[in-house]
Amino acid sequence: MQETSTTLINQENRQSEISIQVNNQPQLIIRIFREPLLHFLVLGALLFGLYFWVGSPSITSTSTKQIEVSTPVIESLQATWKLQWGRKPTPQQLQKLVDNYVHDEVLYQEALALGLDNKDIIVRRRLIQKMQFLVQDVAGIKEPSDEELQSYLDSHADRYTIPGRFSFKQVYFSQELHGDDTENDSQNLLTQLQTNTVQTPPRGDRSMLPTTYTLASAKTLNNTFGGTLAREMAEVTQKGWQGPFHSAYGSHLVNVTQIEPGHSATLAEARKNVRLDYLRDQKQKQDELFYQKLRDRYTVSIDEEALNQGVQEDDA
């Protein structure tokens, strides 16, 4: 009797377990269908299929396309290899180069067929750059004559003014040593030097700067002392003790012994720079003319409302 009861209880438990397992399956399925990831995958698959079904180019082409590996292509592959390795490729290496070229060309042609180049900013920049190179090749500029260079120099004489040069000795007053008295100390010594009341040669503070300069140009002064002293000395027209002039180091008195005045450059003095500037300006003119001819082929429509709104946002 006890064994019979136990058997019945076990059977009921197994039935209960089976019943529970069966009842959990619909709940599991419902949970799976509620997963956002499943929704995303299904929606993506539908959009992908719809895209290629409605009108997008097919990834697999139904027609045979021609890829021609011509003599110029093979010669270009060989030249590139030789430029990189300093020798011609072996037959096996050349065959590998051709195979790689065909591989890349297949992908390139299929990418074009899929329109992957459309609205790609990197491709756009590269095409613009190649168009600019093409303009440079087509619109060659002839070498200017001396008359053209002289006329250009006369029209832009201010660009080629040769600044004056000076030979001098300098007496240095350190800002660190003299502090707020730097200007007064240098001015007092200048007065004595100009009135010949100094009995011994003046000696300034020690520094790494040279004391003597021979026909120093404005560029030399600027590189050595800074722009302030170079600009101040550009106004010097007389020999003798001058100053005080100022630099990042402190104040300077200078005894000018030779002045080579600044002057407008002659063509012989500035030919190299004049020629380069002339060719650059001519290129800019030709580029602008070529662009305008291309621009005239297009009708440009600008959303003025959006443009004005953008301007107003920037002003705000």
What does this structure look like?
The protein starts with a helix and ends with a helix. The protein is 60% helix and 12% strand. The chain has 316 residues and is α+β, with helices and mostly antiparallel strands. The strands form two sheets. A four-stranded antiparallel β-sheet has the order 3-2-5-4. Helix 6 packs across helix 11 (267-295) and helix 9 (218-225) packs antiparallel against helix 10. The chain has four domains: 21-53; 71-118; 121-161 and 265-298, no CATH class; 164-261, Chitinase A, domain 3.
Which helices and strands, and how do they pair?
Layout: H1 2-33, H2 36-54, H3 71-85, H4 91-113, H5 121-138, H6 146-155, E1 161-162, E2 165-174, H7 175-178, H8 182-194, E3 212-216, H9 218-225, H10 227-233, E4 240-246, E5 250-260, E6 263-264, H11 267-295, H12 304-315
Helix pairs in contact: 6-11, 9-10
Describe the structure concisely.
It is built from 12 helices and 6 strands. It has 316 residues and is of the alpha+beta class.
Characteristics:
12% strand; disordered N terminus; 6 strands; alpha+beta; 316 residues
Which of globular, elongated, flat, extended, rod-shaped describes the shape? elongated
- Low-pLDDT stretches are 1-22, 54-61
Taking strands numbered 1, 2, ... along the chain, how are they ordered across the largest sheet? 3-2-5-4
Report the radius of gyration as a whole number of Å. Answer: 42 Å
List the secondary-structure elements in sequence, H or E: HHHHHHEEHHEHHEEEHH
- Estimate the mean pLDDT confidence: 81
CATH architecture of the largest domain: Roll
How much strand content do the residues show? Answer: 5-15%
How many individual β-strands?
A: 6
Give the helix tally. 12
**Biggest sheet layout:** 4 strands, antiparallel
CATH class value of the largest domain? Alpha Beta
- The secondary-structure class comes to alpha+beta
Oligomeric form: single chain
- Count of distinct structural domains: 4
**CATH domain topology of the largest domain:** Chitinase A, domain 3
Taking the alpha carbons of the first and last residues, their distance comes to 94 Å
Helicity range of the residues? 55-70%
